[in-house]
Design a protein that fits this description.
about 300 residues; Rossmann fold; Beta-Lactamase; Arc Repressor Mutant, subunit A; five-stranded parallel beta sheet; about 45% helix; disordered C terminus; CheY-like_superfamily; DNA binding
Protein backbone atom coordinates (compact mmCIF):
# COMPACT_ATOMS: atom_id res chain seq x y z
CA UNK A 1 0.00 0.00 0.00
CA UNK A 2 1.35 3.39 -0.95
CA UNK A 3 1.74 5.95 1.77
CA UNK A 4 -0.02 9.28 1.32
CA UNK A 5 3.02 11.16 2.67
CA UNK A 6 6.12 9.21 1.62
CA UNK A 7 8.53 11.85 2.95
CA UNK A 8 7.13 11.75 6.49
CA UNK A 9 8.04 9.02 8.97
CA UNK A 10 4.99 7.18 10.25
CA UNK A 11 4.64 6.53 13.99
CA UNK A 12 1.95 4.29 15.45
CA UNK A 13 0.89 5.14 19.02
CA UNK A 14 -0.77 2.31 20.96
CA UNK A 15 -2.36 3.33 24.28
CA UNK A 16 -5.73 2.72 25.91
CA UNK A 17 -5.70 6.12 27.67
CA UNK A 18 -7.26 8.88 25.50
CA UNK A 19 -5.33 11.64 27.26
CA UNK A 20 -2.00 9.95 26.49
CA UNK A 21 -3.00 9.50 22.84
CA UNK A 22 -3.94 13.16 22.61
CA UNK A 23 -0.68 14.42 24.13
CA UNK A 24 1.54 12.15 22.02
CA UNK A 25 -0.43 12.76 18.82
CA UNK A 26 -0.07 16.52 19.21
CA UNK A 27 3.63 16.26 20.09
CA UNK A 28 4.51 14.02 17.13
CA UNK A 29 2.32 15.87 14.65
CA UNK A 30 4.04 19.17 15.52
CA UNK A 31 7.40 17.41 15.09
CA UNK A 32 6.55 16.49 11.50
CA UNK A 33 5.52 12.85 11.86
CA UNK A 34 2.52 11.18 10.32
CA UNK A 35 0.67 9.73 13.32
CA UNK A 36 -1.52 6.62 13.54
CA UNK A 37 -3.30 5.56 16.73
CA UNK A 38 -4.67 2.33 18.20
CA UNK A 39 -6.31 1.80 21.56
CA UNK A 40 -5.52 -1.90 22.05
CA UNK A 41 -3.19 -4.64 20.90
CA UNK A 42 -5.54 -6.20 18.35
CA UNK A 43 -6.11 -2.86 16.59
CA UNK A 44 -2.37 -2.20 16.68
CA UNK A 45 -1.62 -5.48 14.88
CA UNK A 46 -4.29 -4.80 12.28
CA UNK A 47 -2.99 -1.29 11.67
CA UNK A 48 0.64 -2.42 11.47
CA UNK A 49 -0.25 -4.99 8.81
CA UNK A 50 -2.40 -2.64 6.74
CA UNK A 51 0.01 0.31 6.84
CA UNK A 52 3.36 -0.68 8.39
CA UNK A 53 4.68 2.27 10.42
CA UNK A 54 8.33 3.25 10.73
CA UNK A 55 8.17 3.06 14.53
CA UNK A 56 5.70 2.03 17.23
CA UNK A 57 5.16 3.64 20.65
CA UNK A 58 3.53 0.84 22.64
CA UNK A 59 1.90 1.03 26.05
CA UNK A 60 2.95 -1.99 28.12
CA UNK A 61 -0.18 -2.24 30.28
CA UNK A 62 -3.49 -2.46 28.42
CA UNK A 63 -6.67 -4.50 28.95
CA UNK A 64 -6.93 -7.67 26.91
CA UNK A 65 -3.76 -8.18 24.90
CA UNK A 66 -1.03 -6.27 26.75
CA UNK A 67 1.89 -4.52 25.11
CA UNK A 68 4.32 -7.37 25.71
CA UNK A 69 2.14 -9.90 23.86
CA UNK A 70 1.44 -7.36 21.12
CA UNK A 71 5.17 -6.86 20.60
CA UNK A 72 5.82 -10.59 20.51
CA UNK A 73 3.23 -11.01 17.77
CA UNK A 74 4.71 -8.13 15.79
CA UNK A 75 8.10 -9.81 15.93
CA UNK A 76 6.70 -13.16 14.79
CA UNK A 77 5.63 -11.69 11.44
CA UNK A 78 8.30 -10.93 8.81
CA UNK A 79 6.28 -7.94 7.60
CA UNK A 80 6.35 -6.20 11.00
CA UNK A 81 9.47 -7.70 12.60
CA UNK A 82 11.83 -4.88 11.48
CA UNK A 83 9.67 -2.11 13.00
CA UNK A 84 11.35 -0.69 16.13
CA UNK A 85 9.06 -0.82 19.18
CA UNK A 86 9.47 1.60 22.08
CA UNK A 87 7.61 0.64 25.23
CA UNK A 88 5.84 3.29 27.30
CA UNK A 89 5.01 2.33 30.87
CA UNK A 90 4.90 3.53 34.44
CA UNK A 91 6.19 0.15 35.56
CA UNK A 92 9.73 0.84 36.66
CA UNK A 93 10.50 -2.59 38.14
CA UNK A 94 13.43 -4.32 36.50
CA UNK A 95 11.36 -7.40 35.63
CA UNK A 96 8.96 -5.33 33.53
CA UNK A 97 11.78 -3.49 31.78
CA UNK A 98 13.43 -6.82 30.96
CA UNK A 99 10.11 -8.26 29.82
CA UNK A 100 9.79 -5.45 27.29
CA UNK A 101 13.24 -6.09 25.83
CA UNK A 102 12.65 -9.86 25.80
CA UNK A 103 9.45 -9.30 23.83
CA UNK A 104 11.44 -7.49 21.15
CA UNK A 105 11.34 -3.84 22.22
CA UNK A 106 14.34 -1.63 21.48
CA UNK A 107 13.80 1.02 24.15
CA UNK A 108 11.84 1.94 27.24
CA UNK A 109 10.17 5.31 27.87
CA UNK A 110 8.96 5.86 31.46
CA UNK A 111 5.66 7.58 32.22
CA UNK A 112 4.90 10.37 32.72
CA UNK A 113 6.65 11.07 29.44
CA UNK A 114 9.13 13.87 28.93
CA UNK A 115 8.36 15.33 25.46
CA UNK A 116 11.91 16.37 24.54
CA UNK A 117 13.27 12.96 25.51
CA UNK A 118 10.58 11.13 23.52
CA UNK A 119 11.37 13.10 20.36
CA UNK A 120 15.12 12.51 20.68
CA UNK A 121 14.66 8.78 21.28
CA UNK A 122 12.29 8.43 18.33
CA UNK A 123 14.65 10.28 16.01
CA UNK A 124 17.59 8.11 17.10
CA UNK A 125 15.79 4.80 16.59
CA UNK A 126 14.33 5.91 13.26
CA UNK A 127 17.81 6.84 12.06
CA UNK A 128 19.21 3.43 13.03
CA UNK A 129 16.23 1.60 11.54
CA UNK A 130 16.48 3.55 8.30
CA UNK A 131 20.13 2.55 7.86
CA UNK A 132 19.25 -1.11 8.34
CA UNK A 133 16.31 -0.92 5.93
CA UNK A 134 18.40 0.87 3.31
CA UNK A 135 21.17 -1.72 3.60
CA UNK A 136 18.77 -4.61 3.11
CA UNK A 137 17.01 -2.79 0.28
CA UNK A 138 20.37 -2.27 -1.44
CA UNK A 139 21.13 -5.99 -1.13
CA UNK A 140 17.74 -6.84 -2.58
CA UNK A 141 18.06 -4.25 -5.36
CA UNK A 142 21.30 -5.94 -6.36
CA UNK A 143 19.32 -9.15 -6.78
CA UNK A 144 20.79 -10.86 -3.73
CA UNK A 145 18.58 -13.30 -1.85
CA UNK A 146 20.21 -13.20 1.59
CA UNK A 147 18.95 -14.50 4.93
CA UNK A 148 20.45 -14.04 8.41
CA UNK A 149 19.98 -17.04 10.69
CA UNK A 150 20.50 -17.41 14.44
CA UNK A 151 22.39 -20.48 15.75
CA UNK A 152 19.04 -22.13 16.62
CA UNK A 153 17.82 -21.82 13.02
CA UNK A 154 15.56 -18.82 13.64
CA UNK A 155 15.43 -16.39 10.73
CA UNK A 156 16.52 -12.97 12.01
CA UNK A 157 15.98 -11.07 8.78
CA UNK A 158 15.86 -11.72 5.08
CA UNK A 159 15.65 -9.71 1.91
CA UNK A 160 12.32 -9.71 0.02
CA UNK A 161 13.84 -11.90 -2.69
CA UNK A 162 14.94 -14.48 -0.10
CA UNK A 163 11.51 -14.34 1.50
CA UNK A 164 9.92 -15.04 -1.87
CA UNK A 165 12.17 -18.04 -2.51
CA UNK A 166 11.70 -19.51 0.97
CA UNK A 167 7.95 -18.95 1.06
CA UNK A 168 6.32 -22.08 2.43
CA UNK A 169 9.63 -23.58 3.59
CA UNK A 170 9.82 -21.88 7.01
CA UNK A 171 8.00 -23.39 9.98
CA UNK A 172 5.36 -21.60 12.06
CA UNK A 173 8.04 -20.15 14.35
CA UNK A 174 10.01 -18.67 11.46
CA UNK A 175 12.80 -21.26 11.50
CA UNK A 176 14.53 -22.94 8.60
CA UNK A 177 13.61 -26.53 7.65
CA UNK A 178 15.18 -29.13 9.96
CA UNK A 179 17.32 -30.60 7.16
CA UNK A 180 18.74 -27.18 6.34
CA UNK A 181 19.49 -26.50 10.03
CA UNK A 182 21.27 -29.88 10.27
CA UNK A 183 23.36 -29.00 7.21
CA UNK A 184 24.26 -25.61 8.67
CA UNK A 185 25.30 -27.06 12.03
CA UNK A 186 27.36 -29.72 10.29
CA UNK A 187 29.00 -27.15 8.03
CA UNK A 188 29.88 -24.98 11.04
CA UNK A 189 31.41 -27.91 12.93
CA UNK A 190 33.44 -29.02 9.92
CA UNK A 191 34.23 -25.48 8.72
CA UNK A 192 32.90 -26.42 5.28
CA UNK A 193 31.51 -24.24 2.50
CA UNK A 194 29.68 -27.04 0.70
CA UNK A 195 26.27 -25.77 -0.58
CA UNK A 196 22.95 -27.33 0.40
CA UNK A 197 20.23 -28.25 -2.08
CA UNK A 198 16.73 -27.37 -0.84
CA UNK A 199 13.76 -28.71 -2.78
CA UNK A 200 10.66 -26.53 -2.42
CA UNK A 201 7.20 -27.01 -3.89
CA UNK A 202 8.08 -24.98 -6.98
CA UNK A 203 11.86 -25.10 -7.49
CA UNK A 204 15.21 -26.42 -6.36
CA UNK A 205 17.35 -23.96 -4.41
CA UNK A 206 21.04 -23.82 -3.63
CA UNK A 207 21.85 -22.51 -0.13
CA UNK A 208 25.40 -21.29 0.47
CA UNK A 209 27.15 -19.79 3.47
CA UNK A 210 28.37 -16.23 2.95
CA UNK A 211 29.94 -15.35 6.27
CA UNK A 212 29.29 -15.13 10.00
CA UNK A 213 27.89 -11.86 11.33
CA UNK A 214 29.22 -9.82 14.24
CA UNK A 215 26.79 -11.44 16.70
CA UNK A 216 27.16 -15.06 15.61
CA UNK A 217 24.41 -15.07 13.00
CA UNK A 218 25.06 -16.87 9.72
CA UNK A 219 24.42 -15.06 6.43
CA UNK A 220 23.15 -17.43 3.76
CA UNK A 221 22.71 -16.92 0.01
CA UNK A 222 19.61 -18.47 -1.61
CA UNK A 223 20.00 -19.25 -5.33
CA UNK A 224 17.82 -20.98 -7.90
CA UNK A 225 19.42 -24.10 -9.32
CA UNK A 226 19.37 -24.08 -13.09
CA UNK A 227 22.06 -26.68 -13.79
CA UNK A 228 25.83 -26.62 -14.09
CA UNK A 229 27.77 -25.58 -17.20
CA UNK A 230 29.63 -28.24 -19.13
CA UNK A 231 33.35 -28.71 -18.37
CA UNK A 232 34.25 -27.53 -21.88
CA UNK A 233 32.59 -24.18 -21.19
CA UNK A 234 34.46 -23.91 -17.88
CA UNK A 235 37.78 -24.64 -19.60
CA UNK A 236 37.22 -21.87 -22.13
CA UNK A 237 35.84 -19.31 -19.68
CA UNK A 238 38.48 -19.70 -16.98
CA UNK A 239 41.45 -21.19 -18.91
CA UNK A 240 41.35 -24.40 -16.90
CA UNK A 241 42.90 -27.77 -17.68
CA UNK A 242 40.46 -30.60 -18.46
CA UNK A 243 40.85 -32.06 -14.97
CA UNK A 244 40.45 -28.65 -13.29
CA UNK A 245 37.28 -28.07 -15.32
CA UNK A 246 35.93 -31.47 -14.26
CA UNK A 247 36.58 -30.64 -10.60
CA UNK A 248 34.92 -27.23 -10.88
CA UNK A 249 31.94 -28.80 -12.65
CA UNK A 250 31.30 -31.11 -9.71
CA UNK A 251 31.98 -28.37 -7.15
CA UNK A 252 29.24 -26.34 -8.84
CA UNK A 253 27.00 -29.42 -8.56
CA UNK A 254 27.49 -29.36 -4.77
CA UNK A 255 29.82 -32.36 -4.43
CA UNK A 256 32.47 -32.67 -1.72
CA UNK A 257 36.15 -33.29 -2.50
CA UNK A 258 35.71 -36.94 -1.53
CA UNK A 259 32.69 -37.26 -3.82
CA UNK A 260 34.63 -35.64 -6.65
CA UNK A 261 37.59 -37.95 -6.08
CA UNK A 262 35.33 -41.01 -6.30
CA UNK A 263 33.55 -39.73 -9.42
CA UNK A 264 36.78 -38.82 -11.26
CA UNK A 265 38.81 -41.80 -10.01
CA UNK A 266 41.46 -39.80 -8.14
CA UNK A 267 42.56 -39.37 -4.54
CA UNK A 268 40.92 -36.67 -2.37
CA UNK A 269 44.34 -35.05 -2.11
CA UNK A 270 44.62 -34.80 -5.89
CA UNK A 271 41.08 -33.40 -6.10
CA UNK A 272 42.01 -30.81 -3.49
CA UNK A 273 45.17 -29.87 -5.41
CA UNK A 274 43.15 -29.35 -8.59
CA UNK A 275 40.68 -27.23 -6.63
CA UNK A 276 43.52 -25.08 -5.28
CA UNK A 277 44.60 -24.40 -8.88
CA UNK A 278 41.00 -23.52 -9.75
CA UNK A 279 40.83 -21.06 -6.85
CA UNK A 280 44.07 -19.44 -8.03
CA UNK A 281 42.88 -19.06 -11.63
CA UNK A 282 39.47 -17.73 -10.59
CA UNK A 283 40.95 -15.42 -7.97
CA UNK A 284 38.72 -16.79 -5.19
CA UNK A 285 39.24 -18.34 -1.77
CA UNK A 286 36.18 -20.55 -1.18
CA UNK A 287 34.36 -23.27 -3.08
CA UNK A 288 31.10 -21.34 -2.65
CA UNK A 289 32.47 -18.40 -4.62
CA UNK A 290 33.99 -20.70 -7.23
CA UNK A 291 30.67 -22.52 -7.65
CA UNK A 292 28.84 -19.21 -7.96
CA UNK A 293 31.20 -18.08 -10.76
CA UNK A 294 30.72 -21.36 -12.58
CA UNK A 295 26.95 -21.22 -12.29
CA UNK A 296 26.99 -17.66 -13.60
CA UNK A 297 28.01 -19.08 -16.97
CA UNK A 298 24.58 -20.66 -17.24
CA UNK A 299 22.70 -17.49 -16.36
CA UNK A 300 23.73 -14.34 -14.48
CA UNK A 301 20.57 -14.73 -12.38
CA UNK A 302 21.95 -17.76 -10.56
CA UNK A 303 24.00 -15.50 -8.27
CA UNK A 304 21.13 -13.15 -7.73
Amino acid sequence: MLRPHPLRDVVLIVDDAPENLSILHSLLDKSGYMVLVATDGARALDCAHRLPPDLILLDAVMPGMDGFETCRRLKEDFRTRPIPVLFMTGLAETEHVLQGFQAGGVDYIPKPIRPAEVIVRIASHLRNSRLIVQTRAAIDAAGQAVVAVAPNGEVLWLTPLAQSRLRGSLDVEGRLPAALCDWLHGALRASEDRPFELLTASEELIVSRLRRGAHGEELLMIQCKVGSPEPAALMQAFRLTPREADVLYWVAAGKTNRDIADILGMSPRTANKHLEHVFEKLGVETRTTAARMALNLVTPHIAQ
